[in-house]
Please model this.
Amino acid sequence: MHTCLQDFRYAWRMFRKNWLSSLVILASLAIGIGANTAIFSVVDTLLLRPLPYPRSERLAAIWLHPPALAIFRDWPSPGQFIDILNQNHSFEQMALAQSRTHTLAGREQAELVAGLRTQSSLLEMLGAKPALGRLLLPEDDKPGNPNVVVLTDRIWKRHFSSDPAIVGKNITLDGKPFTVVGVINSGFLLNAEVMPSEEPMDKVDLFLPLALAADAPQNRRDENYNIMVRLKPGVSLQQARADVDVIASRIREKDERDRSFGMDVVGLQEQVAGDVRRPLLVLLGAVGLVLLIACANVASLLLTRSASREKEVAIRTALGASWQRLARQLLTESILLAILGGAAGLLVARLSLYLVRTMNPGNIPRLEDIGINGSVLGFTFGLSLLTGFLFSAAPVWRAIKLDPNTSLKAGGRSGQNDGGLYLGRHRLRSLLIVSEFALSLMLLIGAGLLIRSFVRLQNVSPGFTADGVLTMQTAANDPKYRHDDKAAANFYQEIESRIAHLPGVSAEGVVSVLPLTGSVGWGGINVEGHPLPPGQELQVDLRTASADYFRAMQIPLIQGRLFSEHDTADSPRTVIIDEKFAQRFWPSGDAVGKHLWFDPKRPEEIVGVVGTVKQYGLETDGKIATYFPQQQDPSTGMFLVVRSASGAAGLSSAIVREIHSVDSSVAVYGIRTMQERLYDSLARQRFASTMLGAFAAFAMLLAAMGLYSVMSFLVTQSTHDIGVLMALGALPSDVIRLVLRQGMLLAAIGILAGVAGAAVLTRVMASMLFQVSATDASTFAAVPVLLGAVAFAATLIPAWRTTQVDPMVALREE
Model:
């Protein structure tokens, strides 16, 4: 123990003696370890740590899966739920639920809250406990019972000031009274990551009973519900999928669904992680490469430092120190640096996580749960020790191989033939530099591919003009609108008329599903002249829009006309289709005048063709789309879009005043410009390219520092050789070329190895790229040139220093 303390004290003295190089080493390790810690904390939360529900590994969700219709996850219907409930052999519990927004009255302004109509078994499955009152009971699942509601702790505190007497009181939702029967404990959370809904929402605020009527088994096409299940003990996910496949085949035959119709059972952990798994593993691999580069760089710096300690090591050996004792001392110095670097890395990790939350890429689930916990601390400590062992290997090996007689005769310098301008005498350092450049190039190429992909994605036209457009959502949930289509149509017609007269407004309109909001709305439809063969369905995007919506969004009219004030409930039914729809069924351009229908007794005449809009993201080709006039198919919840040249802040408040002057019970929320929505739709790609680009830039800096330090050491150790060359008639330019040739040779070997490695590794990123090949020629050509230029600059500085060598002084010193 005393010897270990002695080693640490000596290591600390060496740290203070070489404080500048030690700080450079600590900075390299802090960034490398910190980046790995930050990414591991995300991996730990999403992929390793179980969800906060009892036996969460047994929980799963059931989704419809008709891939031929370009629908990979669709919501089931009550009738399908009952089929699965009655026929399955895999689930011990099942629950049906439906997310809906509700208008909460009783405040100065109506406020929208997120509600979940669900069966009582869901809360039991998820381990919810009542803080006050009770939860939903099995008797609440039956029709005809009084309206009751269970509040979450969040809404209880925010809206009801933590009223301890809230149980038994009535609240008004959508104009109807509901009795509060309980408040859920504060630790319970259910959000869109756990239960994605067709109507995007953040966290569930309240739970209401979902009572299935007697005709629920016949409700086959209302596919807007979630199904959550718990697997029976001993039943695997694969067995459950096979069980559900059999049930899906029966449903496919009974309901005459598309031949690709199926169902999938998705583990809840997998559902929450979503499509972030591959990008996360790519980032984890990237920071791993950064740490390897940092280790190589530190090893190179320590080799340079150890060259000045040859006399010390030789004297210790001559005095009887064993190679084990020398190795332990050098290893202790490295471990001390690694632990200090790990401690600094924790600060870097905390800062990195703060920046991630600030950037909020939008596709990282459980973002608020990500942090530095015990397992992350253990990972950081273990990684620090491993790092210390890695970068100590080179100086330890050098010390073990040192010949004390030669070193002492040479005065403690060049004891291992380290003198000379030729890198053949510095194989270990050369190998480290080649490794740094190879790994750096792989990271740079990966970052270059993502950045090139992101630039191409930004240049994709969304099908509308986002500049100058203000958007917001409205929810007219009062019963007078839900039960009277004409009242809903008149309400939106009135607010459009008022908003049109506001100063600066050039166009306004409403639509049921606004692009780039995550909202969905699709369904089956029939096309005149194109009957579907048995076993096929046609699913299209269904949108309701007002007459001026297309003008407000500047969606171009391709053929025919837009909606007008004459397209009312009393006039013939009309529809507008997008260009993609028209090209599929009427490529010759004669779509106008044709008909679509849900019910053959009520055909909809196509009156116009408009441009195709990127509904679900710039990188996604959506379904063919239809627009129905808002006056003929009114909806209570709509997106309002307003085009104006004036500022959004003042205009938004004026619009909200106009809406509430018509009806104060209507909730207005989600006020954002269309430009902001477009910007946020690229958050995931922007985050990935930014992070990988930052890691690659740091890796390139480390590689340049490593090459600079090696070439500086080479020049310093070769002063005598440089003096001899100059005394024999070599010009300064000759010596500069010699040094440059040595440095660029290392860089070139590393670059060639990196290109070969990148050609293999970048294939993993193929699914993250947009219109860019994983072996994109321009990226593979440009990045090596960039890294070569950096290598040239890193070599030129020490090469230029050779011109300062005075041959007479150099030879006299020798």
